[in-house]
């Protein structure tokens, strides 16, 4: 990170509490003033220049197309003297023209999104049947010739180490694809990716019963972060897609005995970024729940997990006693969307967002609880920050922007609060359904201020079943808006007691206050139907969101499901 501008040109390395400063942005001494970093469906945009008196507008189009579209404006980071932001909802392997305007002549660039197809140069077929030894991968590939490890045609490969080895698979090489494997009973991690290893794909796998035996902290068992997929420090550019990750051997403690500790589905430790985690189904039982579903370290840092230029979308994540998605650290051009989050304490954790921006949009938040015995829910979004002392200067880790758009919180038994009550700056929310029985927004912590507008909020309906009437009945995970919903007609006020009588107040239908009541957010709700965007995750008249591995585009059954 170019903190030379921010901290007097010092070269900084922070070792305290495992936190690490690294240089993440290209040095701009002779390089381009604007560039893009691609994933499959997004582009992270970076524009180095002095701050203009007007917002940095974004326009983009498929290369050479006639029509330009408007993107969401970039935000300015004075520390880096840089505008940053993202384009979302793009098509994979497509070239785009981009124009950035912040006063003066616009900057123009071309950028291509990543291809979803990985060119395979070599295939290693794993023999059918059950292996009982760790598979260590030392031979990788190249960007143009990946090395694929997959079961032999027509067979099922199972790696079951019976808790006699720490890992099912250890990846020590780059440009590696693990496809269609069944991994069981690892002593610690199912898949271990070694430090610094880049470009690993884990897809269509089934990972189960990993980790050391753990339980409540009161039992004296405090083993944390045993993971189905564990990426050690500085690994990155990982693609984790269409996997079934379920039922760790151990169990996370809950909040009854302090901060939860226990197994996780996916963990990344101070990753280099560029990660894509999509269309996975992550589930367990409450007695074998996760600490976090997707998480890692270091939280209070300028790196963390997933760090930067990363996407988390289309996943079903449940049975977490802390965070279903923990996205903490830099959060520089991180996008989290279209996830179905259920049985959690915190739905999405963002403490800290030291660099930003992070975009959280069109997610659905289901049931929440604190402990096995306490059904009161937690928070939809955990916020927070800290201060670090570097070269004698006090540095905030809480200045990155958070954009929170078009999310839906379900009730009853949903989260108690919208956001945690930690110090928070530069948070922007629009078009969310945020009914809940507790706190809606945190207090104002001063400059730089937050900006909460045009959300559908309330306390009365948040704790009861009336919110269910907002949505059309569905047997799936679809939450389209009903034309009308039920609301309590406010009762009469007694002159003597000044008490509102609600016991006998009628429930009456009213027009759904979420339909056509959203505000325009360029790049995020351009395809709305009706007079204006709908509030919430689902837009009536548009195709439903996709959650979980079986809803992934082009999904087909893996070998571990087809063969015996």
Descriptive overview:
By secondary structure, this protein is mainly β. 1% of the residues lie in helices and 36% in strands. The protein contains one helix and 47 strands. The strands form nine sheets. It has a twelve-stranded parallel beta sheet, with no helix packed on it. It has a ten-stranded parallel beta sheet with strand order 9-12-15-18-21-24-28-32-35-40, with no helix packed on it. A seven-stranded antiparallel beta sheet has the order 1-2-5-4-3-6-7, with no helix packed on it. Strand 6 and strand 7 form a beta hairpin. The longest helix has 4 residues, at 559-562. It is globular, with a radius of gyration of 24 Å. It starts with 33 loop residues before the first strand and ends with a helix. Residues 1-31 and 492-499 have low confidence and may be disordered.
Biggest sheet strand order reads: 8-11-14-17-20-23-27-31-34-39-42-44
How would a textbook summarize the main sheet?
Answer: 12 strands, parallel
- Percent helix: under 10%
**Segments where pLDDT lies below 50 for 5+ residues?**
1-31, 492-499
Query: What radius of gyration results from the CA coordinates?
Result: 24 Å
| Cα end-to-end separation | 50 Å
**Would you report the number of β strands?**
47
Could you say which structural class the secondary elements and strand pairing correspond to?
A: mainly beta
What proportion of the residues form beta strands (DSSP E)? 35-45%
């Amino acid at each position: 990170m170019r903190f030379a501008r921010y901290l007097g040109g010092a070269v900084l390395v922070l070792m305290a509490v495992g936190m690490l400063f690294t240089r993440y942005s290209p040095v701009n001494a002779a390089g381009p003033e604007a560039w893009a970093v691609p994933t499959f469906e997004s582009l992270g945009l970076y524009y180095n220049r002095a701050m203009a008196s007007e917002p940095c507008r974004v326009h983009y189009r498929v290369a050479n197309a006639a029509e330009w579209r408007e993107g969401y404006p970039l935000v300015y980071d004075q520390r880096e003297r840089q505008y940053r932001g993202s384009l979302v909802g793009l098509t994979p392997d497509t070239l785009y023209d981009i124009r950035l305007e912040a006063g003066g002549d616009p900057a123009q660039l071309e950028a291509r999104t990543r291809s979803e197809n990985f060119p395979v140069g070599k295939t290693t077929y794993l023999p059918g049947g059950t292996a009982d030894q760790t598979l260590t991968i030392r031979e990788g590939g190249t960007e143009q010739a990946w090395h694929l490890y997959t079961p032999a045609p027509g067979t099922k490969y199972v790696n079951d180490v019976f808790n006699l080895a720490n890992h099912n698979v250890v990846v020590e090489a780059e440009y590696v694809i693990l496809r269609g494997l069944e991994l069981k009973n690892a002593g610690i991690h199912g898949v271990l990716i070694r430090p610094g290893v880049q470009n690993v794909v884990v897809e269509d796998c089934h990972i189960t019963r990993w980790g050391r035996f753990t339980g409540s902290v009161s039992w004296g068992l405090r083993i944390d972060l045993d993971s189905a997929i564990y990426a050690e420090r500085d690994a990155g550019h990982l693609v984790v897609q269409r996997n079934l990750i379920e039922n760790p051997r151990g169990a996370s403690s809950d909040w009854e005995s302090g901060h939860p500790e226990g197994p996780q589905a996916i963990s990344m430790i101070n990753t280099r970024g560029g990660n894509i985690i999509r269309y996975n189904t992550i589930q367990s039982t409450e007695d074998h729940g996760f600490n976090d579903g997707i998480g890692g370290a270091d939280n209070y840092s300028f790196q963390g997990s997933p760090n930067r230029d990363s996407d988390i979308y289309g996943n079903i994540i449940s049975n977490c006693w802390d965070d279903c998605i923990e996205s903490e650290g830099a959060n520089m051009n991180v996008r989290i969307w279209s996830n179905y989050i259920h049985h959690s304490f915190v739905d999405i954790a963002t403490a800290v967002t030291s660099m930003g921006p992070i975009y959280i949009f069109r997610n659905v938040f289901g049931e929440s609880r604190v402990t096995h015995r306490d059904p009161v829910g937690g928070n939809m979004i955990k916020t927070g920050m800290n201060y670090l002392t570097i070269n004698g200067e006090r540095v905030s880790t809480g200045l990155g922007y958070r954009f929170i758009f078009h999310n839906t919180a379900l009730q009853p038994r949903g989260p108690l609060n919208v956001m945690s009550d930690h110090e928070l700056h530069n948070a922007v929310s629009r078009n969310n359904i945020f009914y809940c029985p507790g706190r809606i927004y945190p207090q104002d912590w001063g400059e730089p201020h937050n900006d909460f507008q045009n959300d559908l909020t309330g306390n009365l309906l948040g704790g009861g079943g009336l919110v269910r009437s907002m949505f059309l009945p569905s047997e799936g995970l679809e939450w389209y808006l009903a034309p009308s919903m039920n609301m309590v007609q406010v009762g009469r006020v007694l002159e003597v007691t000044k008490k509102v009588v609600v016991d006998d107040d009628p429930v009456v239908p009213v027009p759904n206050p979420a339909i056509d009541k959203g505000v325009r957010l360029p790049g995020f709700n351009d395809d709305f139907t009706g007079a204006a965007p709908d509030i919430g995750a689902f837009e009536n008249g548009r195709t439903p969101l996709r959650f979980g591995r079986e809803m992934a585009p082009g999904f087909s059954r893996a070998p571990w499901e087809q063969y015996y």
